[in-house]
Amino acid sequence: MNVLILTDLSRVAQNAGEYALKFLENIPVDFYLLNIGMTAGGSKEGQSGLRSGEVMERLENRIGVLRKATANPAHRFFALYSTEDLVSATRRIINEKGINLIVMGAVRIDFSEDTLLGIHTYEVIKKIKCNVLAVPDTVEYGEPEKVVIPIDFSASLNNRIFQVLNQPGLIENARFTVLEIQKEPVMSLAGVEGEEMLFTGFQKNKLNFETVHDAEIISAELLLGMQEKFDMIVLLGKNLSICDRFLHTEHGLQASINNKLPILVLHQ
To answer: What is the DSSP letter of 2?
Structure first.
């Protein structure tokens, strides 16, 4: 597996990298740490006085910490630096390195440190068709045991989108709640028909189906309730309306509510 960790050298990015290391501890992974000429505080390379060599040195220091933290000898680490814009650099590295997953930090609404990742997490999720793990700055890793998947069927979906979740060694002990967002008139896909169509790679005894009306997905109570009941939120990139409602920096739920759960956005 090839994983791209986007870092602006902030503690938010450091936390995201450490979370990813533990999340993927049982899988052979090549980790690529990419900095695009920015540092915490939003400073460009020339403004901050950090030359590319200094940035690479700091990246190598971060890699040294991660190497010491992993017990998996099949974890390898590489430092990358670019002066391109975030989206262009990320797309290029995805193509060059065959990236399967992007890892980014995500900050709470009252976070004072102006991190690159906090500003652009939604932009990456929206514009780049690669799986993205967004890790809140305050979250500490614990093996995900209860995972919620809000889903609607406004887009064409197939079970390839869940390939990452079905990979051996990754959250094998988790139970999944499929939260179907119903729009009227829509026939529920919960139950046998839905499992056969989308969830063939899941163990049936670890799947639970619930439904919620479309209007409820925008409620603060729903997100707060998820944070009490679950360890991770999985969103499907093709479900644009759901991604917008959860992740949009101005109009989504997280614009007014501090999310405490890692969010994994899947693209097929």
So the answer is: E
Q: What is the pLDDT of residues 128-141, one digit of tens each?
A: 989 999 898 888 89
Beta-carbon contacts of 87 under 8 Å, excluding residues fewer than 6 positions away, are 123, 124, 127, 128
For the question of whether the overall pTM of this predicted structure is more than 0.70, the answer is: yes
Q: Give every CB contact of residue 53 below 8 A, 6+ residues apart in sequence.
A: none
Q: Which helix (H) or strand (E) holds 116?
A: helix 116-127
Sort 168 into a burial class: Cβ within 10 Å, 0-12 / 13-18 / 19+.
Answer: exposed
**Is there a contact between 242 and 149 (Cβ–Cβ < 8 Å)?**
no
Q: Give CA–CA dist 150/254, Å, rounded.
A: 15
Q: What is the pLDDT of residue 247?
A: 72
pLDDT for position 265 = 92
Residue 102: name the closest of 112, 84, 89, 115 by CA.
89
- Output phi, psi for 224, to 5 deg: -65, -40
Read off the pLDDT of each residue in 69-80 and give the average, rounded to a whole number: 95
